[in-house]
Amino acid sequence: MSNLQNTDNDLFQDLATIIEQGKKQVAVQVNSTLTITFWQVGKRINEDVLQNKRAEYGKRIVKTIAIQLTGKYGRSFDAKNLRRMMQFADVFSDFEIVVPLARQLS
Questions:
Q1: Residues 73-98 pLDDT 10s
Q2: Which residues have a Cβ under 8 Å from the Cβ of 89 and sit 6 or more positions away?
Q3: How far is it, in rounded angstroms, from Cα 40 to Cα 47?
Q4: 3-class secondary structure for 50-73?
Q5: Residue 50 in contact with residue 38, Cβ under 8 Å?
Q6: How far is it, in rounded angstroms, from Cα 92 to Cα 87?
Q7: Of all residues in the chain, what percent carry a pLDDT higher than 90?
Q8: Cα–Cα distance, 98 to 19 (Å, whole number)
Q9: Which helix (H) or strand (E) holds 18?
Q10: pTM to 2 decimals?
Q11: Mean pLDDT (whole number) for 47-66
């Protein structure tokens, strides 16, 4: 009976390891996707603000779009976070740099 319990325990441990590894891979993929999404949001807002070339317009549009996005997608898209996304897209202006960076996040 003890061999059966050891086998069951080994199987459980193996399955637990597989599940934990899967969960970690999902978390890495989610973080990577969110990073790219946030960069794209920041870049798109930056493009709109720069196209209009007015600081006042930029402040107004960030507040307005933050209210709309927060209502639909939650606090991750409040004005403060949108400004961070804009800064992120400004600092890392090349998408080819952002993708590998996002994949390295854990």
A1: 999 999 999 999 999 999 998 988 89
A2: 39, 40, 41, 42, 43, 45, 46
A3: 10
A4: HHHCCHHHHHHHHHHHHHHHHHHH
A5: no
A6: 8
A7: 64
A8: 29
A9: helix 2-52
A10: 0.79
A11: 84
Nearest Cα to Cα of residue 79 among 60, 104, 100: 60
Give me the amino acid identity at 87: Q
**What does the block give as tokens for 16?**
């637990």
Residue 82's nearest CA partner among 99, 61, 102, 98 is 61
**Rounded CA gap, 40 and 5, in Å?**
52
Asked if residue 102 has pLDDT above 80, the reply is yes
Confidence of residue 4 (pLDDT cuts 50, 70, 90): low
Q: Which amino acid, one-letter code, is at 85? A: M
Nearest-5° angle of CA 76, CA 33, CA 100?
Answer: 125
Contact in structure between 46 and 89 (CB atoms under 8 Å): yes
Let me know: does 99 contact 36? Beta carbons within 8 Å. yes
Return the amino acid letter for 52.
Answer: N
